[in-house]
Amino acid sequence: MRKLKIIFDKKTCIGNKACMAVDPERWENDEDKVKLVGGKKSKGDTYIFEKKFDDEEAHIVIEGAQVCPVNAIGIVDAETGEEIVTMKVSDKSSKIVEAKYDDKKEFVLDPKGYFLIRVDRKEKKIEVAFCEKPNVVSLTVKGSKPIDIYQIIINKEKLELRKDHYAYLGRELEKAYIALKENIEYVQDDDCFERKY
Ligand code: SF4
After folding, report:
1. For residue 132, which of 25, 61, 78, 138 is within the disulfide window of CB 3.0 to 4.6 Å?
2. Domain contains 14
């Protein structure tokens, strides 16, 4: 016999029911999640159940916890305190923000300059020109992959642009890369792709 403590963090559970498949005695369906049978509510969304199991039962209880893909179930030997299966407790202090951005209202031009990006299908390369002044190209970088280009711009040429400008560059480079690979027309600042052939 072995006395085990089962700890279940319902917040972390993603409801794939793998625990139920292995240990239907201990886990029951509960809408989009599961329920720890006999579990008592502890802190937040955590439930605890403690019992003496024979060797065969204990093996199933442990396996039921081990199959959890998100470590929502922890098993502790209630007598020795040994942690048999480690549980990951969801971070309740983490912030979740719904992301929205209005390009037309919130866009602010970087005073350091702007990029002109195009694809060179003959050479199979992406070409990035940087203008410090309107219509005056001060730097041109060519490369096959986005990483080759932005590494040069950030680490070698050290343009020291605003973070959102670098994020913009990454987004446009990825678009240009896909357009080149998939033979789709690339239009800078346009979110739509049009197949070329
Ligand atoms: S295996 Fe884990 S994630 Fe899946 S239902 Fe059971 S506790 Fe939830």
Report:
1. 138
2. yes
Q: Is residue 114 part of a domain?
A: yes
Residues with CB under 6 A from ligand 1: 13-19, 33-34, 67-68, 70, 72-73
Q: Look up the pTM and report it.
A: 0.53
41 and 118 co-located in one domain: no
Q: What domain range includes position 60?
A: 2-85
Atom of ligand 1 nearest to the CA of 71: 2
Span 87-125, pLDDT tens digits: 987 655 566 678 888 878 888 889 999 999 999 999 999
Choosing from 85, 114, 130, the residue where a domain stops is 85
pLDDT in tens, 15-34: 999 999 999 999 999 999 99
Q: Ligand 1, closest atom to CA 27? A: 6
CA of 93 to the centre of ligand 1 (A): 22
Rg (CA), the chain: 27
Residue 34 counted as domain residue: yes
How many other CB atoms are there within 10 angstroms of residue 148's CB atom? 14
Dihedral through CA 146, CA 148, CA 154, CA 159, nearest 10? -90
Q: How far is the CA of 72 from the centre of ligand 1 (A)?
A: 6
Instruction: Report the separation in Å between the CA atom of 19 and the middle of ligand 1, taken as the mean of its atom positions.
Output: 6
